[in-house]
């Protein structure tokens, strides 16, 4: 079984490749990744010499490259995307390109090559905010930032290939992932590594916002369940139900690291900040999926990984990252009385 994984050098894709290779001795995985700022081949050092694994550097928007790598592929799992909400607020254009047009290029090539399963990795952000019950898969979409709107576009297009051409597309909508190898622009690695360095934790607004912090390995076993047993044309939520407010998450990180709460600095809020995400994963549980981390377990296991792996994140927090950090947080921290 030859599988094309796109965006496999990123956070979730690399964890998925490792997990899938360990569970399926007979699979072959081709990883197509453009290696943007978020792609990092260090994430896959332990599998790079596995004869079942190969890497191709390329862009999912490039139909020539995509056509080449699609030869002999039976299943596609598309992780490749621009993924950070704050960057999408700064400049949406790259999000529209990869998260919508890139999906189109992949779908066309996959259909032409008779791919038997196409899994589009989407996000719970497409539902937008909820104040009530967790959303089931049939709830309407209400994406509210350029990232989630692009992801909604990508998955709608993917689903249209099922309804129009009968092409076997499956869609997953994952909650906020935490765990090893997450680029330190996302809140948990950012707060953890800042705290280790005694730098401020820039908490947006009140910090009362809530997320479902699901461990990346639980997300990956959910995707594996959908690949192996999901119904073509169907959409599956993947969230452990690990609801936590950002302020409580920040305090938990500081407590674990033995750092003072004074490191938390309330800064100007994210524009259009979605207050609460909550999804119902009953449909996936019916396929046999069970998450293995609760909220505190997921966050703390991630924190410990960053404590134990400074050699992974310290080189990343330089160069492009510092420019981004200054642009995103410099003025916010100054206005809030924190230092950069
Ligand atoms: P990430 O930013 O860590 O990695 C994205 C990867 O895609 C990188 O390796 C990057 O080089 C690659 N990439 C970007 N543009 C590309 C292009 N045009 N062609 C080829 N490769 C390209 O992202 P992540 O957090 O691992 O997210 C992976 C997927 O899961 C995304 O589709 C995201 O929308 C989705 N998702 C993420 C979360 C989360 O909490 N991180 C939750 C739900 C869904
Ligand atoms: O819900 C799934 C989504 O989770 C994925 O689709 C996205 O790719 C992923 O980036 C993530 O989006 P969020 O915007 O929820 O994640 P982020 O880590 O950026 O922020 C999590 C929460 O923390 C959110 O309420 C904003 C807040 N936050 C974030 C940052 C970066 C802060 O308070 N301060 C920060 O500096």
Structure, described:
- With 340 residues, the protein is of the alpha/beta class.
- The protein contains twelve helices and 13 strands.
- The longest helix is centred in the N-terminal third of the chain and has 20 residues, at 93-112.
- The protein is globular.
- The structure holds nicotinamide-adenine-dinucleotide and 2'deoxy-thymidine-5'-diphospho-alpha-D-glucose.
CATH topology annotation of the domain at 2-178 and 214-238: Rossmann fold
Residue runs with pLDDT of under 50 for 5 or more positions: none
Write down the oligomeric state.
single chain
Q: State the secondary-structure class.
A: alpha/beta
Termini separation: 49 Å
> Which whole number gives the mean pLDDT?
97
> Strand order within the widest sheet?
3-2-1-4-5-6-11
β-strand percent reads: 15-25%
Q: Which radius of gyration do the C-alpha atoms yield?
A: 19 Å
How many DSSP E strands? 13
- CATH architecture of the domain at 2-178 and 214-238, by name, is 3-Layer(aba) Sandwich
* Small molecules bound in the structure, each named once: nicotinamide-adenine-dinucleotide, 2'deoxy-thymidine-5'-diphospho-alpha-D-glucose
- CATH class membership of the domain at 2-178 and 214-238: Alpha Beta
> Helix segment count?
12
- How is the biggest beta sheet arranged? 7 strands, parallel
Global outline? globular
User: Roughly how much helix do the residues carry, as a percent range?
Assistant: 40-55%
CATH homologous superfamily heading of the domain at 2-178 and 214-238: NAD(P)-binding Rossmann-like Domain
Order of helices and strands: EHEEHEHHEHEEHEEEHEEHEHHHH
């Amino acid at each position: 079984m030859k599988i094309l994984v796109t965006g496999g050098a990123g956070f979730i894709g690399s964890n998925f490749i490792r997990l899938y290779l360990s569970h399926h001795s007979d699979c072959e995985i081709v990883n197509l990744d453009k290696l943007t700022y978020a792609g990092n081949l260090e994430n896959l050092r332990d599998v790079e010499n596995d004869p079942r694994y190969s890497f191709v550097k390329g862009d999912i928007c490039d139909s020539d490259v995509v056509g080449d790598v699609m030869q002999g592929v039976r299943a596609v799992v598309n992780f490749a995307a621009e993924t950070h909400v704050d960057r999408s607020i700064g400049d949406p254009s790259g999000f529209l390109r990869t998260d919508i047009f890139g999906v189109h290029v992949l779908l066309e090539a996959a259909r032409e090559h008779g791919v038997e399963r196409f899994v589009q990795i989407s996000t719970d952000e497409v539902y937008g905010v909820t104040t009530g019950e967790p959303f089931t898969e049939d709830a309407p979409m209400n994406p509210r930032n350029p990232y989630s709107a692009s992801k909604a576009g990508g998955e709608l297009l993917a689903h249209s290939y099922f309804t129009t051409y009968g092409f076997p597309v499956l869609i997953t909508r994952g909650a906020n992932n935490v765990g090893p190898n997450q680029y330190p622009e996302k809140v948990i690695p950012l707060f953890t590594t800042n705290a280790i360095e005694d730098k401020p934790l820039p908490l947006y607004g009140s910090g009362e916002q809530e997320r479902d912090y699901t461990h990346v390995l639980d997300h990956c076993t959910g995707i594996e369940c959908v690949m192996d047993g999901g119904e073509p044309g169907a959409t599956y939520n993947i969230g452990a139900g690990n609801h936590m407010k950002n302020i409580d998450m920040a305090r938990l990180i500081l407590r674990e690291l033995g750092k003072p709460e004074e490191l938390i600095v309330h800064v100007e809020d994210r524009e259009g900040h979605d207050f609460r995400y909550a999804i119902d994963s009953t449909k996936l549980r019916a396929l046999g999926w069970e998450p293995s981390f609760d909220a505190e377990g997921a966050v703390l296991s991630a924190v410990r990984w960053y404590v134990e792996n400074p050699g992974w994140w310290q080189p990343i927090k330089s160069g492009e990252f510092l420019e981004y950090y200054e642009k995103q947080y410099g003025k916010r921290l100054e206005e809030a009385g924190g230092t950069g």
